[in-house]
Amino acid sequence: xxxxxxxxxxxxxxxxxxxxxxxxxxxxxxxxxxxxxxxxxxxxxxxxxxxxxxxxxxxxxxxxxxxxxxxxxxxxxxxxxxxxxxxxxxxxxxxxxxxxxxxxxxxxxxxxxxxxxxxxxxxxxxxxxxxxxxxxxxxxxxxxxxxxxxxxxxxxxxxxxxxx
Length: 164
What we know:
Elements lengths: L29 H12 L2 H11 L4 H9 L4 H4 L5 E4 L5 H11 L6 E2 L9 E2 L1 H8 L6 E5 L3 E5 L9 E5 L3
Antiparallel strand pairs: 1-6, 2-3, 4-5, 5-6
Helix pairs in contact: 1-2, 2-3
């Protein structure tokens, strides 16, 4: 399935190895969260270019980096795809994420629409799920949800899991 991605959404837990960073969300830099996602889920040979574009001050370059996930099979570590289904519902995504990672509260979103917002998992999913653009939702450094941009039919939805 082809998907087109235009923005991303990251969700992080407060009971992860990053818990010490959660004292104040303002203290967490977007860059740190994005680096963890890229280092965990993106093929090593693609990381440097993504870092350059994601952290570039020009918003157009940043959007270009996010568009790259349209070809998720070229950028993501495919062995980390836990579920790939365009028909997943919000409830199914939330249930599967909770199976993989039981205890978390705060979510961090990166997208062209909700960039930098923090919210609970359910609210984040409801906010981004039916939005036409693409979203990446990271729960800790081990679990992520990627929703592609809608093009033909429903967008592809992927749950990523970095088994430790």
